[in-house]
Structures are given as structure tokens and as C-alpha cells.
Amino acid sequence: MSDPAQPPPSLLDELRAKSDVLRERVSASRKPVEEALQDIDQRLWKAFRWLDEALDHLEVIRPIVARRFQLGNILTIAQPRFDRGFVSFRKRSLAGLELLDHIEMFYRLVGSEPIVLRVNPGGATAIEERLRASTLQFQYQTEQDDKRVVRYGLFHVQPVISASVRLQPDYHRQVIDVTLRNVDRFESVSLEFPPDKISEPVLENLVQFLLGEANTFLHRAPLAGFHARRDHQPLTEKARQRA
What is the value of pTM for the model shown? Predict the structure, then answer.
């Protein structure tokens, strides 16, 4: 029974009480989501630190990579040496949190000697397109006969392979897309990992893969599906089985 001496709550008091209840409900519902986002972020930071240290050691050791990088029937770079690399990151704001947008490892491999391609001038444009797509650095010049007629085109190609590994989280779907570019071939491959699979054993498999020691990393996760970004160029399943 209400106290007649007690004044009724004001409209503002009623609104305040109702809004406090709703705020508590929203906060309780958001907590699991925020924890999931922060878990992905923390796993990526651990991966960043692990890869950063691994690259420091590889720069000192400069191991030979047991791979053959073949660009169609144009050229082959066999057993290049690890040269140098670094890891970068970018942050973003999401759901009121400051989270990693991605981390990316860049590195380069160097072949033993420059490559010279002597080709028919009519086919030079197609070869130039393939070289640019592979990110190989090159210079082109023509070779003329005594009558100043162009007989051949010469490509002077630097045997330097620029490679990268990008880990980009999709916080809404709670997966991490891993894109490999020029890691074991002149192509891009996208894999899709659950966040809890980005662990030290998987990172060890990644380094073993880029050194050509084992292909276990390719089988750690499925290829990215139709939701993959347009710049990804995943291998076909048949090509993956050959890896």
C-alpha cells in the first residue's frame, strides 16, 4: 500500500528507471559479442608477434626455399633464397572497440642470377602482362638486325619474388581469411580459418610451407568460398591436391 505522504515518482524518474533496465539488458547481450571480437583480436596480435620474430630469424639465416616458381612456359626460378621481410598491421573501430583490421607479412625471395628472355616481338605483350601480374621486375628492349628491323625482344628479369601472407578477420562471421600471394607459386590462394585455429602450430606450418619444407598448412583449412574477396584467386580443388 502506497504512502499517501510520499509523492508519486515524476515522469523523469519513471523514464530513468525504464531506461536503466533496458541498458542493463543491452549490456548483458553485448558482452558475449564483445568477448568474441576481443578474442579474435588477441589471437591476431599473438600471430603478429610470432611472425615478426620468425622473420627476424629468417633474415639472419637466409635459408634456401625448396620451391620451383614457374611462370607458365616463360621462366622458372628454382630454390630462391629468403632475403628479408616484415610484418605490418592496421586497426579499425568496430562496436565501440579498437580492433585489428588485418595483419600482413611481406617478404622476398631472391634467385641466383638474372634471367634474360629472348622472344619474338609479336609475343612480347603477352609475356609482359604475365611478368607484371607476377610482380617480377623487368626491363624490355628490342634487338635489331643490320637493316634496323626488329628481330627479337629482350626481357631482363630480376629473379626477385615478392610474396605476402595476409590475415584478415571477418568479425561478423567470426572467421579469419588467410591470403597467400606468390608463396609457393605465382598465384594467390585464400584459406578460411576459424579464429581458434590461428595458433602456434598453424603458424609453424605456415613458415614450413613458405620455406618449401611441407604443404601441411594448405590442408589446415578449406579454401575460401564465394564470399571471398574479388581480388582472391583461389586454386581449384584439383590444383590443391597436386600441391
Answer: 0.75
Across 189-199, average pLDDT: 94
Cell representation of residue 16: 530513468
Are the C-beta atoms of 217 and 205 separated by less than 8 Å? yes
Q: Give the Å distances, CA to CA, from 149 to 18, 116, 120, 126, 235.
A: 88, 21, 12, 21, 42
Asked if residue 184 lies in contact with residue 191, where contact means CB atoms within 8 angstroms, the answer is: no
Which SS3 state, helix, strand or coil, does residue 50 take?
helix
Q: For the beta carbon of residue 218, count every other beta carbon within 10 angstroms.
A: 20
Which cell goes with 4?
499517501
- SS3 state of residue 229: coil
57 near 211, Cβ under 8 Å? Answer: no
For 11, the grid coordinates are 515522469
Residue 156 gets the label, from left (phi > 0), alpha (psi -120 to 50) or beta, of beta
Q: Number of C-alpha atoms within 13 angstroms, CB side, residue 178?
A: 22
Closest residue by Cα to residue 115 from 82, 83, 156: 156
Query: What pLDDT does residue 152 have?
Result: 86
Q: In whole numbers, what is the pLDDT of the chain averaged over residues?
A: 86
DSSP letter, residue 185: S
Give the domain ranges of the chain: 26-109+163-242, 114-158
Query: Which residues make beta-bridge pairs with 166?
Result: 104, 179
- Cα separation of 139 and 210, whole Å? 28
The count of residues in the chain is 243
Asked whether the predicted pLDDT for residue 26 surpasses 80, the reply is no
Q: Calculate mean pLDDT across residues 71-90.
A: 96
> What are the angstrom distances between the C-alpha of 160 and each of 107, 110, 126, 183, 189?
10, 5, 20, 13, 20
